[in-house]
Design brief:
alpha+beta, Arc Repressor Mutant, subunit A, 3-stranded antiparallel β-sheet, 4 helices, globular
Length: about 70
């Protein structure tokens, strides 16, 4: 598999796209990033923030619970 195929399978998403994928708002993602509690992101310049779909999926899976009795 070459790098072009990898990029298509695991695209970089801008914050609005990532928020839509997660079902949240851009503001919530920004706040999570500020707090250090959100998904891994890439910031190649001061005004650009990108998320890999695989990082979003990993973050969702790392925050999965089966009972409300589990501590957060």
């Amino acid at each position: 598999m070459n790098q072009g195929e990898t990029m298509q399978e695991d695209p970089l998403l801008r914050r609005p796209e990532a928020a839509a994928y997660l079902g949240t708002t851009t503001g919530s993602l920004a706040q999570l990033a500020y707090q250090g509690n959100g998904p891994k992101y890439y910031k190649p310049s001061p005004r650009r923030v990108y998320y890999r779909k695989s990082d979003l999926d990993a973050w969702i899976n790392s925050n999965a619970y089966v009972s409300t009795a589990e501590s957060v």
